[in-house]
Amino acid sequence: MLQGGKWGAVDVSGYLRVGHTDGARRTVQADAQTGLDTRWGTQASRAPGAINNGRDSTDGALDLSLDQWRFRVAYKERDDIGTGTGVASALDPEGHIYSQAITSDLTYDNRNLAEDWAVNLQASVMHYTELTDLTLYPAGTNFFGLGVFADGVIGNPAKWERHGRLGGSATYTGFKMHRIRLGLGAEREEVYKTRETKNFHTNFTPINTGSRADIIDVSDTEPFLRPQGRTKRYLYAQDEWNLGKDWTLTAGVRNDHYSDFGSTTNPRLALVWEAAYNVTTKLLYGTAFRAPSMSELYAIINPVVTGNPDLRPEKIRTLEAAVSWQPLTKLQLGMNFFHYEMKDIIRLINSVYQNNGQQNSNGLEFEATWDAVKDLRLTGNYSYQRSVDEATGQPAANAPRHHLYLRTNWRFTPGWSVDPQVNWVSDRPRELGDPRWT
């Protein structure tokens, strides 16, 4: 449900969406417990069995605008989230996760603050909750020979987070042929509360018989994650330079400093050529990073994953060449060739997060948008990539070779539309060493 209008001088819009899906119901022939059964002579595995991918979803947002001011608040809830193939790669058909995110932001955007100057200021906050009910390994498991669990290895971690952000940017157009943008900001991220109940000791032996009746609260003594916080500061500069007729060069650099792992600096370049009235070409280069999450840094006393406070951020270097062509008024086509190199990839090695490995990829993308008739729009894109793990020379795990997306939007009557979509992902290699790897 989507609605917009006026409330006096205030522009108002909002939406509400409620949904449910059972998710894909593919069958897993063998899981992690299958291997434990073979090793310890048990028969606890639930494989063959269906993966658990269902969820209920509720989304809502309200947007208010007045002159240079804009206020937004949003709510996002996911309930009964299935655990897929299981958090520990052992099927868990009853396991579920709950998450809730409440966000709000206030923006001041003045494009005529003074001659040649524009300014944008933003403050935002978010509160996030995550609750779980997980059976890591099923009833009857002899967890690595440490003892039989009557009702399985059960762990129910929960966490509460709050995030705050302040940022601003200024744009100056007083120099001929240049558009200069400067920005800075700060963020605070806190896991301010954690809770955990489980039926196993710190050495992963069962508490008593390992039943649900043996679950205890270890939030104050043996939590999976202790409350943590970190601060991020950033600043950036960018110059959009009109080199001449039909040519534009954008150059920028950004520095991010995290209180837990230090600083990283990343440049970007974009050269754009308007080759014809209906053809645009682009050449882009840049570097970026992914900061390690709180769990990747600080998770403890966990049979599935252990954090590593010495982690460095993942880094990526990208190069792209793209062309956009509009042969007809109602038809737009695009093609993109890309290459990227990743290093310091964060991976689980013997259940501990580590910076391990490098990966490179080459690929291409096609996209098209066609307004077939007045009320019917067809869009789609296809991508192919070949990603290689440099340590093994084998295809990189979990990087799909093919991805096809198709969408139709038909506004068959005022206020109503039909919007079917198809999303197809193919040839996603498994981790080398996975017994199912081919």
Description:
3% of the residues lie in helices and 62% in strands. The protein has 438 residues and is mainly beta. It has one domain (2-426): Beta Barrel (Maltoporin, Chain A), CATH 2.40.170. The chain is globular. The model has no long low-confidence stretch (mean pLDDT 94).
Proportion of helical residues: under 10%
Rg over CA atoms, rounded to whole Å, is 26 Å
Task: Supply the CATH architecture.
Answer: Beta Barrel
N/C terminus separation: 45 Å
Give the averaged pLDDT, no decimals. 94
CATH class: Mainly Beta
What's the number of helices? 2
Secondary structure category:
mainly beta
Tell me about the largest β-sheet.
Answer: 20 strands, antiparallel
Chain oligomer state: single chain
The count of domains is 1
- Which shape, going by the Cα principal axes? globular
Indicate the CATH topology: Maltoporin, Chain A
Low-confidence runs: none
H and E string: EEEHEEEEEEEEEEEEHEEEEEEEEE
Bin the strand percentage: over 45%
CATH superfamily: TonB-dependent receptor, beta-barrel domain
Count of distinct strands: 24
